[in-house]
Each structure stands twice: as structure tokens, then as C-alpha cells.
Amino acid sequence: MAPPHVIVPFSGADPKTRLEPLLSAAERGRLARAMLSDVLAAVSGAGAESTVLATEPVDADLAERVIVDERPLSAAVNARLESEGPVAVVMADLALATPEALEGLFATDGEVVVAPGRGGGTNALVVRHPDFSVDYHGVSYLDHRERAREVGAVVETVDSFRLATDVDEPEDVVEVLVHGDGESRDALEGMGFEIAVRDGRVGVARR
Amino acid sequence: MAPPHVIVPFSGADPKTRLEPLLSAAERGRLARAMLSDVLAAVSGAGAESTVLATEPVDADLAERVIVDERPLSAAVNARLESEGPVAVVMADLALATPEALEGLFATDGEVVVAPGRGGGTNALVVRHPDFSVDYHGVSYLDHRERAREVGAVVETVDSFRLATDVDEPEDVVEVLVHGDGESRDALEGMGFEIAVRDGRVGVARR
């Protein structure tokens, strides 16, 4: 089975605001770009082609094309679902994504295949049913399963820690330092971050 | 390949103290017991037998036996590693563990197979090398990989969101309500917890 075409939504303006306690605006932008790069490299490594669906023009050498759509995430993704055949939608902040994890997603049968994220999110999706649409607001993992059932689509879930880990909050940064091996980890190390253990709990410190 | 015997360490006295902001001592005890039950059911569903390695006597119908060892976690587990053949060590707070996730762990080749937990932890392990020992303090995922290399053991990692999710902190409780379907979820619902979305972020509320 050929891998689906992959849409990677990317928000270029003031990204990753929840990382403000840890990073300046410029650093958040640098990390977001590094994570996008890592995701696109993993997609390519899994044998799939990608489209970056960006809120503003962005340089993404590893993608086949960039489409700029200023609408909110769900509206922009649904426009792509309507105009393309079967596609995958993979978030741009999955810094731990590997070709193997994505191959597992792509190889899972089902008309809608969901890789959940922490906190009820949907970090990656394969959509092979014409009537399915996304809504990333709220507990999107449950909403997407419900929506799939409503349109009569067979829904499956993929169990992957790497795909479940989106980098949104300061506590997520430690996952990149422990498990990452791409540009995102290099970027964080370049900014002086390292793993630190305090009172038996693992976090990050900055040199 | 027959599944390994599974050691499930369980701390019966004042468990899950990091959940104090959310739960009383009695409720933490109830949740801890429910999670142990769910883990033992998943182990049994994966075709494996289990030993609960408890700090004090505990009733665990689903386990083949209970061994009481008052020593700290790592010392108690290492005593079992020395006296048993190949074993798995699966934490008692993996409320999302399923037979399928554990089968994936057991079926992975390697003399040391690690299922990482959030925050650099080691949530489940298979040990098939006589010289390997555990140290759960600190960034145990990295330490266990390093220890495996030191003793010349082939080390593999298992990529599972269900095995990566241990229930330690208040934010972990939402994962049980979203993805759980066992006694842990029943216990939380019985205590009045439900999923709640505030400012676009998914958490829990209590009725």
C-alpha cells in the first residue's frame, strides 16, 4: 500500500506561545522550524510526500510544496480534505516522529486512523473516507472518533508514544532532549538546554 | 515465544502522593488498587503470569502470587531479577495498558527491552540478560540503556503511548478518562471526575 500524501499544518506567526516561560519569541520560532524539519524528514523517510499547509509563506525544502491558507487550522485542513484523495494530517510539532512511527500509522487499515496526543488531542490522522472532516478544538481525539462513526467510517487508533508527544508545554521539552535525535534536539541544545533532575523529578535546565 | 513472567511492583502505603491536589488519601489508595487491577488484567490478557511485588501485604486476585519486600523499588526489583529467569517488570500505575500493548513489549527481541515513560522514566522492561540491573532513580530510561550497554546486552525500545502513560500527576488523570476502559476509569468516574475543556485546554472537573 502506497503511503498517503501528508499534510503538515504549520503556524508561522508567533508559534508555540505556551513555551513563553522557557523561550523568547525568536527561540520559539527557531524551535518550531526545527520541529517542522524533523517531521518532514520523518515523512520523507517513511516514503511519503508532503505539503506544508502554512498560515504564511515558509521555506520548507523537505516538502514537495507549500500552500498558504490563513484560515484557522480546522478550516484549512478541511479544505485540503475536500480537494485531495486519501491524505494524512501530521502536526508540525511532533519532534519525536520517526519514519517507523509514521509507517505504523500509514500501514494501519481503517477509513479514519487516529494517533492520539496527550490531553485528548489528535496528533496525526489518516483519512480515507470522503465525508470525514476535522475539528481540532476541544477533546479532538474523542470528537474525531465520534465524527468517523457519524459518517460510517471504520476508525482505528495507533498506539505510539512518539506520535503522542507534541511539544507544546515546557514539560514537553525534556522529551526532545531524552528521545530526540534531529534538528529540534540540536536547536534546544544550542540554546543551552540540558536534562536536569531535581527532587527526583526530571526536567530541563539552561546553561 | 512464551511471554515472560511479569513482576508488578506496588507501593501500598500512601500511594500516588503527587495526586494530593486532586484526591484524598483514601481515594488515592482506591485509584492505585484499581490501576493495579487493570495492569494485572492486561498482563493476564497478554497470556502472562504475574507476581505483585508489594511493600506490604495486598489482596491481588488476578496475580499468581504476592511477594512482600519492604526495600526500596530498585533493590526489591533487582532481588527478583537475580532469582528469576527472564522477566518483565511492569509498573502498577499504567492504567491504559492493554493486552495488545504488552504483547508488543513481550514480542520485541532484545536482551533488554524498554518501554519509556513520560519524563525519562522506565514504565515497563523485559530483561533477558543475567547481568542487567535496574535503577529507577533519575532519568531511568537513559540509565537503563546505558546499563544494558555496559553489560553487553542488546537493547531495544518499544514505542507505545499506552505504556508511556503512568498516572502520577493530576494532568495524567485526563488520559484515563479519555483512553481508559477498566476499573481505573470506573473509580475516577465514581469519584465524580469528568473531562472538562477550559480555554481550549483539556483537563478534568469534579462534580
From TrEMBL, chains A, B:
Its EC number is 2.7.7.68. It comes from the Archaea. It is an enzyme of class 2 (transferase). GO terms for molecular function: GTP binding; phospholactate guanylyltransferase activity. It catalyses: (2S)-2-phospholactate + GTP + H(+) = (2S)-lactyl-2-diphospho-5'-guanosine + diphosphate. The keyword DNA repair does not apply. The keyword Transferase applies. Gene3D superfamilies: 6.10.140.50, Spore Coat Polysaccharide Biosynthesis Protein SpsA, Chain A (3.90.550.10). InterPro entries: CofC, Nucleotide-diphossugar_trans. Homodimer. PANTHER family: 2-PHOSPHO-L-LACTATE GUANYLYLTRANSFERASE. Guanylyltransferase that catalyzes the activation of (2S)-2-phospholactate (2-PL) as (2S)-lactyl-2-diphospho-5'-guanosine, via the condensation of 2-PL with GTP. It is involved in the biosynthesis of coenzyme F420, a hydride carrier cofactor. Belongs to the CofC family. This is 2-phospho-L-lactate guanylyltransferase.
